[in-house]
Give the backbone structure.
Amino acid sequence: MRPRILAAALAVVAWFAVLMQLYLSLRLAIANGNSIGGGIVIFLGYFTVLTNILVCVALTFPLLAPASAPGRFFARPAVAGGVAASITLVALAYHLLLRNVWDPQGLQWLADVLLHYVVPLLYVLYWWLVVPKASLRWTHPLLWAGYPAAYLAYALVRGSMIGSYPYPFIDVAVIGYQQTVLNAMGLLVGFIALGLLFVALGRLQGEAIGRREHAR
């Protein structure tokens, strides 16, 4: 399958998952007596949602506006690597820490599977099959960590303002700031380790391709 067709197919799946979750979040907000604006605030509070939106944007701009500044930015292999590591964190954190916290049904189950498993798996496959990796550097995971670090800061500030935190492991109201900071640091260290794994795999793939080309 051609890279652009693969990227377009994945973008459709990712946008479908994000828009389905938006619809479900707004429907739940209205059912609970909240406003549409309040539903959007809740929707945009989750790392899962924001990172899936990041996947959507990272695929869409290079497809529809490759010559634009965002198109060129998201086409960079280092940026694609950061997106791959971030969406992998979504899948791992959900599977290891959150999947037993609730029991989604119906359309919410479908959105849950798409956002936490299908999109991460497909994007990592896209990264592995399509994205060049020769330019990856061992320092890139430190740069990539800026995204989850910024999210953690955003989630804590947002939580202090509205009195609600999106995830139990950063719920200051329940576990306190000390444990929240420890949990956040653990997640960041784990993310950097994950990023280093992506760099290592990418460099190994690049070396293998180089050896095959040299042997021709």
In short: The mean pLDDT is 94.
